[in-house]
Write the structure tokens for this entry.
Amino acid sequence: MSRTIAEIQNEILDEKREQSALAGLTNQSKTAIWKLWVYIVASAIWVHEQIVERNARISRPHTLDWYRTQALGFIDKTSLIFKDGFFEFDTEELSEVEIESKRIVKHCAVSEIDLATILNPDGELTIRNDSGDRVNVEVSNSDADQLLSNYFRNQVGVVFMKVAKDDGENITSLKPDEQARFREYINRIKDAGNQVQVSSFPGDKLELNLLVYVDPLIIFINPSSSNDEENGVLLANGTNPVVDAINNYLRNIEFNGAIVKTFLVDAIQQAPGVNIPLLQNMKAGKAMSTPVTIDGEFYIPDSGYVDLNELQINVTYLPYTFFRNNQNIF
């Protein structure tokens, strides 16, 4: 942000005091010639900084990060005006508290398509179907050119933007009317000729099935019932360290980040009373679909996040008694 004229004047006066050759300029009258020159020079510098700042804002390359910054700067239910070569929200009548309350987009991830992400060594083309899901299509030499031509015409040059807000604790999707206003905002500020595909979906479903060996002196285990709801509770304070560790790990994943099985197990391993956590399987999928088993090492939610209110955690607890040869399940 450029400096004010007063700030520039003060810096000039500070420098004057350091120069012994200017010690003779002692006239404190507001109309003293040397003070007028300080004001003139400060004003000229201020005009120059205003021009430089404006040109920098107008000429800033519209990278993916630029789109993300603009998304996070969206002020809902506020008019957008074109001023000094760029768009800005008319916040003159709004307080800082009101402005912050209208910044509904709290999470944003921006990406685009390139050739390396849609082709694989097996001669398949990865495309998005009508539902937005990625699917593989076999490509032969005869129709490769046509498929690639059609695909690039529809997909390349498209900026894919996932956005979400939060309710104070969990990430949530934008409401339909909020999405409509946000899309209109993006359509106004985007580069001419570019397409921006905005999505804001309910969080993905996630189901975790685990086998966890715990210290029975620290964590409660009912030896006669594996279905006891108290199983896994920390004896010291009644909390469930395994469930808490899972929730903390998921909450701290960056928006549109990957749920990594190894990192999840590492997080559970750090919980008090836990000796050996084993992730037997992980299932995930879109909010309105049936979760499927994730065979790979990680999973990136299609919506960008997991709905923690719908999170299913199934844990079988076993006492960790390393000095015995057999480990029996209840």
